Amino acid sequence: MSFVVPDACTLPTVEQPLRLAEFDELFATAVRRVETLTATHARMTLIGEAGLTAAAVRDLTARETGCCSFFTFTITEPADDGEALILVRTTTS
Fold this sequence. Notes:
The chain is of the alpha+beta class.
């Protein structure tokens, strides 16, 4: 299965593979659990290496929301596990 960039994305075509690679790297190295909350909401638990920081994830998701306004991301750091981040992705139409 391949990912198709929606037409509503305003990221220049030449930059899309680079952004996709950033998300692929994050997901491959840090995602430990994915919960599908609804058809448009997913919650991911991320636990990563020393390079995984809330600031880095916020930067990536903010850049993505900047060109793909149909995505909203919420990032939280659970109080019970200082190493985990919770990333919630919401898709709007």
